[in-house]
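Standup notes
- HV: blocked on the assembly model, inputs below
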Amino acid sequence: DQQVKQNSPSLSVQEGRISILNCDYTNSMFDYFLWYKKYPAEGPTFLISISSIKDKNEDGRFTVFLNKSAKHLSLHIVPSQPGDSAVYFCAASEPYKYIFGTGTRLKVLA
Amino acid sequence: NAGVTQTPKFQVLKTGQSMTLQCAQDMNHEYMSWYRQDPGMGLRLIHYSVGAGITDQGEVPNGYNVSRSTTEDFPLRLLSAAPSQTSVYFCASSYASTTEAFFGQGTRLTVV
């Protein structure tokens, strides 16, 4: 049973608009969450993270929101740029390892 | 700073062959892990290690072996390759489980 879920396999957004990528989890013991971006033929690269003691973390155009009661996190990209087109994975941290979602392919249209 | 280095980048194996995927990191990270990425399945954990001499199974360990004799290296062995092991394999390392993990470039493996 998947503990970290990304229910939208793909998302298309116009350049300059907001991209919102969603992630749900089932284990309330998770206390640290990360977002990764992956381009074709490359390894995933770290984007932003959030601890469960926070409900928001910002880094430039990227903001992650955490709703612990709903077991839901989201990544907001504002404004979206064509270079943001990639697959985005959310991940939850367990002791010694990470549990990844299935990914959302974001396409930013110029 | 090389980060996480995986070799080879591409490999084609025949069913039943064995091989080792190499992974090395130069960041002195204790935590290392192997994932496989398949369409619609995301990144699934195969094996992980919390330090030299210590390894454990992840979500999909069958058909794979690992060892960790040094902090730097974490090879993944396919004992008898099967078509179901056709995938892209990623090695990752991190300082701790509450910090970011750094990934290698991946190894694309095809088993025919």
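- HV (later): unblocked. DSSP finds no helices and eleven strands in chain B. The longest strand of chain B covers residues 42-51.
- Next: hand off to the docking folks.
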